[in-house]
Amino acid sequence: MRTPKSRACAWSIVALSLLAAVAGGAGCTKPTPPPSVDAGHPPAATVHVRPPAAPGELPADLTKSKITLSIIKDRDTKSPVVATVMLRDGAVALGPGTARLTIDLDTFDSGIPLRNERVRGIVFETSGVGWDTAELTVQKIPDDVLASIREKKLVRTKLDATMKIHGHTANLVLPVEASLRPDGALWVKTSDPLGVKTSDFDLVGNVKRLSQICMHDSIDDVVNVEVSLEFH
């Protein structure tokens, strides 16, 4: 049977452990070790089935395409938080002149697991129905731009687009350059960073909540996005 003194020591150890856990989880910049997993039973990964491309579409190469986000916190413009997200689907149709991208917000990766978890869960709320993606659509690529692309010329232009995040849709203007490779593959990239405002998607409250939890002075409303895409 434990004595009162031994029980007091045990409770002291528990209390110190809890204090250490809370202190370690307060910040958003320190990596935390992944939870231990039984080697014979790894966690199940979510598998998304990519829908087939429609006739006339050039599907995006998901492995070669890259999307980079840059976020300024605490007004530190010299050291922004840099993260990547992956495409879940995408295609361009040069006939009608349309384009669509589905960006997987659950792949947000800043290199720090705790930060990734908080951005996904608190800001994007990716567990919400349909909130784990950002949907970008270009309804009409101008005819002169399409003609130049077909002639394999280098095109620099701005495209009108819409983006849907967190159940809200906003208009964007995409500064891009594009061209066809000799093998027929189309590459597209942003010629300048695209500024996307979290306030356009009703995410200001979520960003403030993240800022308070992580004890930041501020997190900028604008997220700078740079994109490099390939379509085959």
CATH superfamily: Lipid/polyisoprenoid-binding, YceI-like
Average pLDDT confidence is 84
- Cα-to-Cα separation, first versus last residue: 72 Å
Structural class: alpha+beta
For the report, how would you describe the main beta sheet? 8 strands, antiparallel, barrel
Beta-strand content bin: 35-45%
The assembly state of the depicted protein chains is single chain
Q: Which strands sit side by side, in order, in the main sheet?
A: 2-3-4-5-6-7-8-10
Describe, in plain words, how this protein is organized in 3D.
22% of the residues lie in helices and 38% in strands. Strands 2-3-4-5-6-7-8-10 form an 8-stranded antiparallel barrel. It has one domain (58-231): Lipocalin (Beta Barrel), CATH 2.40.128.110. Mean pLDDT is 84; it is low at 1-27 and 30-45. The chain has 4 helices and 10 strands. Helix 2 (113-124) packs antiparallel against helix 4. The longest helix has 22 residues, at 4-25.
Which features does this protein show?
single chain; 232 residues; alpha+beta; Lipocalin; eight-stranded antiparallel β-barrel; 38% strand; disordered N terminus
